[in-house]
Write a structure and sequence with these properties.
Blueprint lengths: L11 H15 L1 H7 L6 H26 L1
């Protein structure tokens, strides 16, 4: 679990902001959301393939736009 210590002269909002960034970087929330429901291996493979296709299409659009 990420932890932060209040620095000299730091406000509570600054402390909360640092904590939120630390939690996001540690990917704890995304891991919890992912494990919320069981996903079979075949379903996971299907989702990964779908993501890869979407990524490739975005990459293709970006390269076409750039050229």
């Amino acid at each position: 679990m990420p932890s932060v210590v209040l620095r000299n002269g730091e406000s509570q909002q600054g402390l909360a902001r640092r904590f939120r960034k630390k939690v996001i970087r540690s990917k704890i929330l995304s891991e919890v959301r992912k494990r919320r429901w069981f996903i079979s291996r075949t379903e996971q493979r299907r989702q990964d393939k779908k993501k890869a296709i979407r990524r490739a299409a975005q990459h293709k659009r970006y390269n076409n736009y750039r050229n």
